[in-house]
Amino acid sequence: MKGNIVVGQSGGPTAVINSSLAGVVSYARKIGVEKIYGMHHGIEGFLKDDLVDMGEYIRNDEDIELLKRTPSAFLGSCRYKLPKIEGNEEVYDKIFEILEKHNIEVLFYIGGNDSMDTVKMLSDYAAMKGKKQRFMGVPKTIDNDLPITDHCPGYASAAKYIATSMKEVIRDNESFGVEKPTILICEIMGRHAGWLTAAAALSRGEDCSGPDMIYVPERTFDMDDFLARVKKLAAEKHSVVIAVSEGIKVADGRFVCELGGGADYVDAFGHKQLSGCAVTLANKVAAETGLKTRAIEFSTLQRAATHIASLTDINEAFACGYLAAQAADEGRTGEMIVIDVKNRDPYQVGYSIHDIHDIADVERPLPAEWITEDGTDINDGYVKYALPLIQGELQPIFVNGTPHHMVLKENRG
Ligand code: F6P
User: Fold this and answer.
1) pTM more than 0.85
2) Quick check: is 143 catalytic?
3) Which tens digit of pLDDT belongs to each residue from 83-94?
């Protein structure tokens, strides 16, 4: 590679998105790339020529280690949809003008389905106009809904947080309920796919019975059936804990969170903000049963918890970044790194590269065979899939009692 590179982070952050950034930067440093730029707030910032000089932050291996332990998107993120090429060429011309101005040979974009659309559009435009710049996708999403790849960096760490927190709140809920149980409803992210909510099943083991029910968006939610099941559980148990996906919908297509009045905000990709489903259900159960209820929304905690990130996930996220840079160095473009699991027990992982056109904008649901027939639980097939992914921990660097992070300088000039 003779020119410079730029890396962007896009979409919802994860606990390991900075490990992928560290991977790209590590490879680029190894081959002596002169300038390693970061996009401040993804392609949206790039369009304003808002760049970060990664050389000011990454000078040695210790800096790489701190970046890997830093939650959220170090460079800042965005949810920005590139317009269709036809009729909007000025947007693409602007991007290529900035690439040329900084002698950038390769653009890396770390993101999920929507972000891979950006890689697709830019590589298509380059091919159409005979431009020499190359574009590589690095997978990332806690939702785990990218196709082709076995799983997505970021998913396992969010799953580990969810499994851990489920165990802890189940313990808490079990401490009361001598006469009547408290009904605890936990809301988990994942948009239209149940991968993350399924992770609540990973809390099950010899020291924890796990949630009593798990509801994923792949199945239509039936309110009457749900209430009947809750009443039955409440009559039999001193603690009832239920995991629900933020994206569950009733038969007429409305999200459960909309029944309580939430979900007004819609982003550039047309995604509604899904939040409030646990509160809606807890209020409904309280009104129907008179029992004490509590709603917990894991919300951004589940994607920001780098202090309990999976070491397997951190290593794979780093590898995806590193290998994307290596592939670009070999002249590849318009592709994304894919994780291939060769064996689950013992766990053996490999990597390949796949055409971005098969990946951008495609959402992969949780396989139907892992959802129990009545649609209220997740079976062992999923557990076998996910368990190897959440193994291992990386000790944070504690300063004054809290984990230390790498932060962008405010006045970057
Ligand atoms: O795409 C990742 C994700 O965390 C989804 O699971 C969730 O629905 C969404 O982002 C929330 O996005 P925001 O924080 O922008 O509301």
Assistant:
1) yes
2) yes
3) 999 999 999 999
